[in-house]
Design brief:
The chain is an alpha+beta fold and about 270 residues long. Helices cover about 50% and strands about 15% of the residues. The chain has a four-stranded mixed sheet with strand order 1-5-6-7, with helices on one face. The protein is elongated and about 85 Å long.
Length: about 270
């Protein structure tokens, strides 16, 4: 996402624009998606999914009621030929939203938890970089092998002998050419990912500074500030249900592990 696009989207008060942009551009992406055909706003839109079938959750408002009650529901309810035990009943949005936000505020305001989370983020990214670098080495070998095959086929065409079917050689070159193109695209994608993750120490510093600047605003944060933090920290919520019991798990890029939030009867 281009930096100039930020002018159309809310950035948290007190956050330097460069710092916010460096922390991630998920806010813009999700904001664009959220505006599509959406009459009402839902805090966890794009951040919640069903723990039974794995489908994403979606927010809906009961327009038949005077209070316009809002719920999250498994998206299997609107997918043809898809069924899930949770699809027939929604979960009140306030129940999930409040629990998730309380958990996030606690995580960000507890210095020990925050530091542990940031160290875990760095550790994960460092491990991912190590794995991806090995993938790059393997791809380099495959690309070299493909190039060698193409060169050999070109030589055969240049010095072909009677009886050699040129069309067959050209088809082979075309096939390996497409294979090389695919390998190069994959190589570029992984290289870009490695480059972004190699800056994990800087990202750790930026997130820490960002949290420090908005910490005092968290308890009374606006909807826009909450959405921004959910996006930047890549918060993911999973809801589970067994008969009348429902509970939730939450995690984000700086949480050491999934956190169980609620275990209560549905309403």
């Amino acid at each position: 996402v281009k930096r100039e696009e930020y002018k159309d989207y809310p950035v948290m008060d007190g956050i330097d624009e460069d710092l916010f942009f460096a922390a991630g551009n998920r806010t813009i992406i999700n904001a664009k998606r959220a505006k599509r055909n959406r009459k009402y706003s839902y805090l966890l839109a794009g951040h919640i999914r069903c723990g039974i079938c794995g489908y994403s959750g979606y927010g809906f408002t009961d327009s038949r009621s005077k209070k316009k009650n809002q719920y999250y529901r498994c998206s299997s309810a609107v997918k043809a030929h898809r069924t899930c035990p949770t699809q027939s009943r929604g979960i009140p949005t306030k129940r999930v939203d409040n629990a998730v936000w309380e958990w996030l505020v606690k995580l960000l305001t507890d210095e020990t938890s925050l530091n542990e989370g940031l160290k875990e983020l760095s550790r994960k990214q460092e491990n991912e970089v190590t794995v991806k670098k090995k993938d790059l080495q393997n791809l380099e070998g495959l690309i070299d092998e493909t190039e060698s095959r193409i060169s050999r086929l070109v030589r055969e065409i240049t010095n072909h002998e009677p009886g050699i079917i040129l069309d067959t050689l050209r088809d082979e070159i075309k096939k390996y050419g497409k294979q090389k193109e695919s390998q190069l695209k994959e190589y570029q994608a992984i290289s870009s990912d490695v480059q972004s993750k190699c800056d994990y120490k800087e990202v750790e510093k930026q997130i820490h500074e960002m949290v420090k600047e908005v910490k005092h605003k968290l308890p009374n944060a606006t909807f826009e500030v909450k959405r921004s933090l959910l996006d930047v920290l890549n918060v993911q919520v999973t809801f589970h249900r067994e008969i009348e019991e429902v509970w939730f798990e939450a995690e984000c890029s700086i949480s050491p592990q999934k956190e169980g939030l609620i275990a209560s009867s549905t309403s």
